Amino acid sequence: MTIFQNARFFTTVNHLRDLPPTRAEIAFVGRSNAGKSSAINTLCNRTRLAFVSKTPGRTQHINFFDMGQERYLVDLPGYGYAEVPEAVRVHWVELLGQYLATRSSLIGLLLIMDSRRPLRDLDWKMINFFGETQRPVHILLSKADKLSRQEQNKVLASVKKELEGYENTTIQLFSSSKKTGCAEVEQVVQGWFAALDAASDTQEIAPDAGTSPQ
Ligand code: GDP
Question: Which ligand 1 atom sits nearest the alpha carbon of residue 54?
Answer without folding.
Answer: 4
